[in-house]
Amino acid sequence: xxxxxIVFLGLDNAGKTSFIRAFDENYNxxxxxxxxxxxxxxxxxxxxxxxxxxxxxxxxxxxxxYLMEESQVLTEADYVLYFIDIMAEDRYDEALxxxxxxxxxxxxxxxxxxxxxxxxxxxxxxIDIATVKKKMLPRWEIKDRVNRLTERLSxxxxxxxxxxxxTSIYDRNSILIAFSKVLKSFTPKSExxxxxxxxxxxxxKKNDLLASSIIERKSLLYTEFSVDPKSKELxxxxxxxxxxxxENIQVVKRIFKMTLLIExxxxxxxxxxxxxxxxxxxxxxxxxxxxxxxxxxxxTKYFDRICTIVD
Length: 311
Ligand SMILES: Nc1nc2c(ncn2[C@@H]2O[C@H](COP(=O)(O)OP(=O)(O)OP(=O)(O)O)[C@@H](O)[C@H]2O)c(=O)[nH]1
Ligand SMILES: [Mg+2]
Known about the structure:
It is built from nine helices and 13 strands. The chain is of the alpha/beta class and 311 residues long. The protein has two domains: 2-186, P-loop containing nucleotide triphosphate hydrolases (Rossmann fold, 3-Layer(aba) Sandwich), CATH 3.40.50.300; 190-310, Beta-Lactamase (2-Layer Sandwich), CATH 3.30.450.30. Bound molecules: guanosine-5'-triphosphate and magnesium ion.
């Protein structure tokens, strides 16, 4: 199995450990977190890649250690996830200063891995879902500081492969989206996710749906398709709530189907279990559509194809 290493860096209290716990769905542990002492390592396996996560405690007394070559923290990292608490405006300079030190340390080694910056604690109340490109956009309350921060980051990250994301532990979607970017760079299996998307697009078009999404947590499969920007906007908002809902029913029921009527649309949330994996399918259809027929079609013609790819 391929081995990859990712390091989680950033100031203390930025939310690194919480991000990892939220990703692992260990929500009950989030409440009682204490500052990480030095490094906490954990392993996950996704899509045939074994990923070693180095969660580096961000208190000042530890930070310098990581920059030293003998600590081996930065060494051979395949990805750096750098966390900035966007709510702590008084610590932006310090956060950017530390990021600069890390990049400088890498420059000395001659190799700089890709960086993912998480502008973290961008909780759902501060975010609007944009109609294009599944992008999360900051609401006016935080827009200015996000823009200013992004501008400073872009300068700092010149020549470094990077992406900047708004993330929050209260929006697991944001964590999944950010993390799938990391994963995508690791594994040719990400092409498989594209394949699943092709199947989903076919399913949407053949059944005259407005939008659909399929999610499988273990493999980090996450794909969605909408036929037009208006459907996309509504669908994304619904899906955000759908995810919270899915998380809650997950423990209760094996198979689940629920339909909602929203203005001129019907939205159906469905969950399936196959080969120890749980799939969440969400579809958005016109009011007059026959959902039973559509779901039958999915189950007989599309679901197995998708499972085969994911397994
Ligand atoms: N509002 C909000 N609070 C968060 C979020 N993520 C983490 N927090 C809070 O931020 C505080 C610090 O979180 P940690 O995950 O311990 O931060 P850390 O970066 O691991 O800190 P060190 O281990 O000291 O480096 C905790 O009180 C969390 O509950 C978030 O997305 N939104
Ligand atoms: Mg921590």
